[in-house]
Amino acid sequence: MCGIAGWVSYDADLTRRQDVVDAMTGTMACRGPDDSGTWVRRHVALGHRRLAIIDLPGGRQPMTVSTPNGEVAMVYSGEAYNFTELKEELTKLGHTWETDSDTEVVLHGYLQWGDAVVDHLNGMYAFAIWDERDDRLVMIRDRMGIKPFYYYPTPDGVLFGSEPKAILANPLARKVVDSDGLRELMAFTKKPGWSLWKGMEEVQPGTIVTVSREGVRTRTYWKLDAKQHTDDQETTVARVRELMTDIVNRQLVADVPRCVLLSGGLDSSAVTGLAAARLAEQGEQLRTFSVDFFGQEENFKPDEMRDTADSPFVRDVASLVGSAHQDVVLNPAELTDPEVRRAVLRARDIPAGLGDMDTSLYLLFKAIRGESTVALSGESADEVFGGYRWFFDEASVNAEMFPWIAFRSAMMTDRTSIYTPELMAKMNLESYLRDEYRSAVASVEHLDGESAVEARMRTICHLHLTRFVRMLLDRKDRASMAVGLEVRVPFCDHRLVEYVYNTPWSLKTFDGREKSLLRHATSHVLPASVAQRVKSPYPSTQDPGYAAALQQQAKEVLAEPGHAVFDLVDRSWTHRVSEVDSAAMDPADRVGLDRLLDLYHWIEMYSPELRLD
Q: Does domain 233-531 have CATH number 3.40.50.620?
């Protein structure tokens, strides 16, 4: 896992701009604390920061290969989980090796197959290859969008990086946020290619972007296709079990300490059970980590999203598999520390406004990094198998809108209540949401003869796998890589995604519950309590001290009447919410305070130029 950055300029001599290349690369230091390197030629500069996972001494980058017609250089972030098999295949084709790293295998795969190397890869990756043989840059991102990748076209080339901050370190990139960028931040639809910053785009998942003197060309190499599912229930469960076992086994390969993120839910517990079994075969004990809050278990109150506290289920799993378990327990002071908030904003580059669900994740990863370098996560199982509550809410399923927006809850609340009426009048958000929804639905393929229910649920699943999951994957990657921790996501293996996506909804829910396939496929490694547990989202503190601390910080913001945050946020709303009883605060108002504080600190840190006409 690493951070990459680069610059292509066909009209300039970049050998004279080493300082800029170093600055761009330096912004990725958190993603790669173990090593740094640049490769600069007249029209191209590549930068790399390395987090060493496989072949610790041999995987330095940028990595190059000389050919009779010029050098081919690559900067690579991610992991190819099938690199051992690919290496054997390429060896038979005549390739020789200088390292044991997966990076070298991917580079030689490009030499052998060109852009079609993507068809041979299983993993999470974002990489850029400069091919001197035809003076072109090739940028490739994994199928599900696990690893982030951004680019910024310029008049004579392109800037690129793992994160926007790498691009923004180049003086050619302007820190401009316009109405289109802000609209999506409010809307929560994950518009394809969106980055918040004007002129900057994501390399979309499953996409190859090629830059040459002729310009920028984009090609999609993978998407979710509708295919007939012919396996019966027993065969389907067995296939899911087979895939999950193989995926977890592959993703445990590393030359550094590994662990699993354990929440006590079905998803993370399934990964934990499979990982513990695999490591036991190798004579090793699995390490597991959970996040919790002081007093949460003793004072837990069920709400509309969470019926039970996590801790009892975490203990059941850790006891069953015999893991070396550690709880990372946080208090309101840690969760509301402005420096922690700023660290999260620095990691994400956007004011996401997720509050303690972001800060606690960052603090969890920071604690884990002291013990492990690689962690496996249960992220994305709900999108793959259909686990969210709104999958089973008739109004949300049938709404002509993204289900997570149609669903009414404190977590999925109105994201616009904090903004000024003048700003909202400019945003025309309802029209934007309708347009994005229609665009997303139009991209879904259907099978002939699908029932209305199956067709609708295929659409719902597609929306989650191409929109919603990408927001969560970005959150996970940024928070983990900000502390140099690699988090792997077994449920995003494209083989599993393709297979389960094409499984009928009636099979996905064959026992009358959410995630029936996963529940039955992994029941052999689960305690009974977890196998029967109802879906519970990522935890959030219920301590009223959290809301009280936010109110105090909001009052401090109000003491700066001329601050640019009030060009966006309604001052009267801020004043009202900062004065209510924190113990009785509406959950939506607590979420709003987090959004206000994110915006305030983001403006302070990034000094964006807001163009909202």
A: yes
